[in-house]
Amino acid sequence: MAPRRPGVAGAFPTPVEPPADPKPDPAQLYAALDLGTNSCRMLIAQPRGSQFHVVDSFSKSVQLGQGLEASGRLSRASMGRTIQALQICRRKIEDLEVRRMRLVATEACRRARNAGEFIRQVRRETGLPLEIIEPEEEARLAVISCAPLVSTRTEQLLVVDIGGGSTELVWIDLSKVPRHDRPRSIMRLHAGFRPPEGPFPAAKVVDWISVPLGVATLKDQFQDVEDDAARFALMSWYFEEKLAAFSPYNADTPREGFQIIGTSGTVTTVAASHLGLRRYDRTKVDGLQMTSAQIDRVIRDYLSLGPEGRRRDPRIGRDRHTLIMSGAAILQALMRVWPTDRLSVADRGLREGLLYAQMSADGVLDEGAL
User: Under DSSP, is residue 362 helix (H, G, I), strand (E, B) or coil?
Assistant: First the structure.
């Protein structure tokens, strides 16, 4: 016999709504926006220990650099798409009353003849203080973002950031830094590649380069080559040719103690494909180590799919399928010439570097281990 429900008033429990997360204190919030050649991305976060906690985020493909290679100018359509995305960012910043922020633009705006006009239009229509940063600062911010992934066993570090319009490479010597302090020494580069003398042994930036070829600009250079495999081989060879002036290219560096960290959508997409992820999972990708053989296997798979197969492949995604082979060409060239057969994958980049740099400068991050 089924149990009877009591018929008195109040027999059914009153539904209890889960408490909403309290609105974070605006005084603790920082915003970082990265406007690249392809994407507009923003993070809003608050410091938590030696890291930060993300409160809100935004990412959208705006293709700001579309047509830039041919015309030397940002098109009216691409500027319109970008300003629409920036309006969303503005609303998020206003809703959370964020006061500390850095909003930066990179290679597309560095190269465009009408970049100044675009920056003024952004300020007029959104009120956002967008600034164009130089390649050295872009490289430095990419390095800072990767500090938590630096191994205490690393003596020579190469950080690679493959963007839409450019690729930054930074070679850092950590051999004089005590092992336990090596990740933290990378964070101290927020003051510049030549930080002032201090009480701690410093990471030494041996050399850095900004190659004006990213996934979009390299693709545009070879879009007239019809054969898919030939186009890939030419892109990889052409990118490697641009590295000749970078001092580590010809250095006789031992494999022992050498670490490459790659940060970009290309690197994380290759990692997700290696793992067979049909739905992207940052927790499985960030910090993953891949061998050269595993990277080559994924790239051969991409080539065998052809353009149409890549377009349909859920591991690549609709936003990236036209750019993945130019990014893969850059990645394969790098793995071919550096003295290591492993790559550390970083799902982090300019936004995280901007946040770390702001918080470090304000002294709100703990000095403990990363």
Answer: helix
Query: What single DSSP character describes residue 92?
Result: H
- CATH H-level superfamily of 26-133: ATPase, nucleotide binding domain (3.30.420.40)
For 59, the token pair is 């990412």
pLDDT at 170: 94
Residues of the chain with pLDDT under 70: 1-21, 195-198, 247-255, 367-370
pLDDT value for 13: 41
pTM of the model: 0.84
**Helix (H), strand (E), coil (C) string for 194-248:** CCCCCCCCCCEEEEEEEECCCHHHHHHHCCCCCCHHHHHHHHHHHHHHCCCCCHH
Q: Where are the alpha helices (DSSP H) in 276-349?
A: 282-285, 292-312, 324-337
User: Do 314 and 230 form a contact (C-beta atoms < 8 A)?
Assistant: no
Helices (H), the chain: 68-71, 76-95, 107-111, 115-126, 135-145, 182-187, 215-221, 228-241, 265-275, 282-285, 292-312, 324-337, 350-362
The tens digit of pLDDT for each residue in 36-66 reads 999 999 999 999 988 899 999 999 999 999 9
The C-alpha atoms of residue 299 and residue 322 are separated, in whole angstroms, by: 14
Residues 6+ apart with CB under 8 A from 163: 36, 37, 106, 107, 138, 214, 215, 264
Domain-by-domain residue ranges, the chain?
Answer: 26-133, 137-351
- The three-state secondary structure class of 90 is helix
- Angle made by CA atoms 145, 147, 151, in degrees to the nearest 5: 145
Report the CATH number of the 137-351 domain: 3.30.420.150
pLDDT one-digit tens code per residue, 135-190: 999 999 999 999 999 999 999 999 999 999 999 999 999 999 999 999 989 988 87
Element (H or E) spanning 173, and its range?
A: strand 167-173
Rounded Cα–Cα distance for residues 360 and 53 (Å): 15
